[in-house]
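Tip: read the tokens left to right.
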């Protein structure tokens, strides 16, 4: 791979989340470039003493990304539930005050 084919490291000033997402995208594209065009045999070949393979690494990264996406959705859901509960408590307090 020649130097001009390398992807630039992300320079994101979109805050902590924006930077994290930019680097996640960067890492994902780098891994996919490395394994592109390899045969299944090459992907399953052990390169180190452990059972680590390129296919196993891609599966691990996929599982991690899936975990964090589910966690993010759960955190968003929890925030909505907290917001709704606060609104219900406020409404209940207004009803008690009026009666």
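Filled-in amino acids:
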């Amino acid at each position: 791979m020649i130097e001009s084919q390398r992807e630039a490291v992300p320079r994101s000033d979109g805050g902590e989340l924006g930077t994290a997402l930019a680097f996640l995208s960067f890492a994902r594209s780098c891994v996919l470039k490395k394994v592109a065009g390899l045969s299944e045999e090459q992907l399953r070949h052990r390169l180190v003493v452990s059972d680590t393979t390129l296919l196993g690494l891609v599966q691990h990264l996929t599982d991690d990304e899936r975990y964090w996406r589910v966690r993010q959705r759960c955190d968003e859901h929890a925030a909505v539930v907290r917001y709704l509960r606060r609104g219900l408590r406020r409404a209940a307090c207004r009803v008690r005050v009026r009666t």
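The chain has a mean pLDDT of 78. The two ends are 76 Å apart (CA to CA).
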